[in-house]
Write a structure and sequence with these properties.
TIM Barrel; Oligo-1,6-glucosidase, domain 2; 2 domains; five-stranded antiparallel beta sheet; globular; Glyco_hydro_b; carbohydrate metabolism; GH
């Protein structure tokens, strides 16, 4: 490890600084005003499952507003709302009116009130933009079934030589039947794909995005971003298809920046390597880091860093080359399409804590899925990973959504009420980690230098920006570890997740399942 650290230019002898005396070190760190710095952490909310203010069992927009104080205390900088538009489905990813609000969630006035209340607390609001496809109940598609309609070309229809057995890019069939005609529906027959080779479709989507920015939203999460043009399994990896996708999203981003230069646009691009994700930087602000999510969970589950350092180095190199700067990643652990993290980790609370610690000490803008900070469990099918948020010890009290019965059977400890009262809870752990990002600017946008260590249980990386330089060290194991640092410039324990961490004569003593940030 000494060799790795010396390679980064560290050459100052270390001093003995117990973790218990880290407060003075915090004050000495030139990382900006902790009271005003933004941690740049986003929080994903399924409105239906969040908080119910009118007693119908379904979460609503006023419920999001009612819980903004909770989100502010957690420390998040922004919220991502899963689809809020009218839709015939419970999840909302098949939209019938892009300019409206799902009446089960409230009204446009309710949404504007949420935006105002969030912005007053310094919390940004991002909405899900689902424009790869519409609902088959959308007026556009209903009209499009008539070949004479101007909306016919808004969708893709099979011709006489179309291979109707072609596999969709997401699995299953691509072509669906409507009467005597076949239309493209990558995901399901209820979600017909829009045809972006039709100029009117592009213009409508630019108009749509600008409409929501005018309401006050701060950005968009782009559903199925790669499937605007990647429709068939045979197109996977096709550079022509990629080029067409990137050209459209570049046009979209320019259209949004014309009315809001700082708009934040994150894409759902489900690729398995940083090299495949890197081209999307520029057309978009960022993309979700699916490869890193898998590795973080694997490292936490196995209590070994494994390939984490190598992946972090590859990711940083690819993203810096594409964007020209650090801190552009959008790391996460899981989302509404995946088994919840606690379930992936087989209910192990220590592994959950370490997964969270790694996520929230990486540069970029991390995303947290609602309930993750409580350790909520859930395995697919999809409704079971989107169950109601647990607010109170006793299920079913006023405000808690009841649209779906729980399948996870989490106990009373998995609730906001219980964990706010417990100083050692997972919720308190998340809150601490998120607030660290306000104190240390390098955690948000530092250039990362992952360390390859001899000890397989230690994950570590150096982060550097203009105002702060820190070393992040995680002991992923259930045993105390002696981490030799050698002669380094990191001489003090700045922040720590557990007591008992000490740095003496070039050796960092780490208790089990602990995180330390050194300066």
């Amino acid at each position: 490890m000494c060799t790795a650290l010396l390679a980064t230019g560290c050459a100052v002898p270390s001093a003995h600084v117990p973790a218990e005396h880290h407060d003075a070190a915090v004050k000495a760190l030139p990382s900006g005003d902790a009271s005003t710095a933004r941690p740049d952490v986003w929080y994903e909310i399924f409105v239906r499952s969040w908080y119910d203010t009118n007693g119908d069992g379904i979460g609503d927009l006023n419920g999001v507003t009612a819980k903004l104080d909770y989100l502010q205390s957690l420390g998040v900088s922004g919220i991502w709302l899963m689809p809020i538009n009218p839709s015939p489905s419970y999840h909302g990813y098949d939209i019938t009116d892009y300019y409206g609000i799902n009446p089960q969630y409230g009204t446009m006035d309710d949404f504007r009130h949420l935006l105002d209340a969030a912005h007053k607390r310094g919390i940004k609001v991002m909405i899900d933009l689902v424009i790869n496809h519409t609902s088959d109940q959308h007026p556009w598609f209903k009209a499009a079934r008539d070949p004479a309609s101007p909306y016919h070309d808004w969708y893709s229809w099979a011709g006489p030589h179309t291979d109707l057995s072609a596999a969709s890019a997401v699995g299953g069939q691509a072509w669906r039947i409507a009467g005597s005609a076949h239309y493209l529906g990558d995901f399901t027959g209820a979600m017909p794909d829009l045809n972006y080779d039709t100029p009117a479709v592009r213009q409508e989507m630019l108009k749509l995005g600008q409409f929501w920015l005018a309401q006050g939203v701060d950005g968009f999460r782009l559903d199925a971003a790669q499937h605007i043009y990647c429709d068939f399994k045979a197109q996977d990896g096709d550079p022509v298809v990629l080029k067409k996708n990137l050209a459209w999203w570049s046009q979209f981003r320019r259209g949004m920046q014309a009315v809001r230069p700082d708009v934040y646009i994150v894409g759902e691009v489900t690729q398995d390597s940083p090299d495949k994700l890197a081209p999307w930087f520029g057309p978009l602000s960022t993309v979700f880091d699916f490869p890193l999510a898998s590795q973080l969970i694997d490292s936490a589950r196995n209590e070994r860093a494994g390939d984490l350092a190598t992946l972090l180095a590859r990711t940083d190199a690819a993203y810096r080359k594409a964007s020209g700067r650090s801190g552009v990643d959008a790391p996460f652990l899981s989302n509404h399409d995946q088994d919840r993290v606690m379930s992936q980790l087989d209910g192990n609370p220590q592994h959950m804590r370490m997964a969270a610690a790694m996520l929230l000490t990486l540069p970029g803008q991390p995303f947290v899925y609602y309930g993750e900070e409580l350790g909520m469990r859930g395995r697919k099918p999809d409704p079971d990973v989107r169950e109601p948020m647990r607010w109170d010890r006793v299920p079913g009290v006023a405000g808690e959504a009841t649209w779906k019965a729980s399948t996870s059977h989490d106990g009373v400890a998995v609730s906001v009420e219980s964990q706010q009262a417990d100083p050692d809870s997972l919720l308190r752990h998340y809150t601490t980690l998120i607030h660290w990002r306000s104190q240390v600017s390098a955690l948000r946008d530092g250039a990362i230098h992952p360390l390859e260590l001899d000890n397989p249980h230690i994950a570590a990386w150096q982060l550097d920006n203009a105002s702060s330089h820190v070393l992040v060290v995680h002991n992923l194991s259930g045993q105390a570890q002696d981490v030799p640092l050698g002669d380094t410039r990191f001489r003090a324990v700045l922040l720590h997740s557990k007591s008992g961490i000490t740095l003496q004569r070039g050796h960092l003593q780490m208790p089990a399942y602990a995180t330390a940030i050194l300066q």
